[in-house]
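Protein modeling request. Please complete all fields; requests missing the sequence field cannot be processed.
Requester role: graduate student
Desired output: 3D structure, token encoding
Chains: 1
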Amino acid sequence: MTDPGAGGICLFVGTIRAEDDGRDVEGLGYSAHPTAETALAEVCAAVAIRHDVIAIAAVHRVGDLVVGDLATVVAASAPHRGDAFAAAKDLIDTLKSTVPIWKHQRFTDGQAEWVGLP
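Delivered output (118 residues):
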């Protein structure tokens, strides 16, 4: 992300929260389609075209996670902070809505639900 032309670097870290929609979360598991890595790279490329950025990157974990774990990290660097913020927001929003990664959320009451299924 660092570059002599970067006046701003924006980093977003998504973590596993303890509550979702009024329900206590025990943990969750992320599953990804085999094309998820390619889809993530395509999202990064598309977001880079839409914004004046120097660099852009995103990672998303898969597997079982517990409350407090890191799930997603996106970053963008740009000549100006506004562009870095806009690109990072676009990146996380587009990633969450298009990359085939699904969440199986487990609640403390023993129930579970899938989130983000096609």
